[in-house]
Model the fold of this input.
Amino acid sequence: MSFQAYLDAIEKKTGRTPRALLDEAIERGYDQPGVKAGEIVQWLADDYGLGRGHAMARVHVITKGPTISSKHVGTDGVHRDESVELWLDGVATKP
Done:
């Protein structure tokens, strides 16, 4: 599953776009230095029922932003992504 596919699956499960969840995380202070991934994972499990794999994709976006490694971009493997920039504004608005 690609990184973007994780975010799209989370949107489908929660009904919230990646950007909406990012905004909520920022409001809660989860984007601050020193916040542990486990704390974010627990919040996402408790409030949204996300498992660890999906939550860790969210942790990346919250702590590192929407840019990902180019490792899988343009490949034909199962983890391939179309771009190093993740789309955060929701499946319905994807170009």
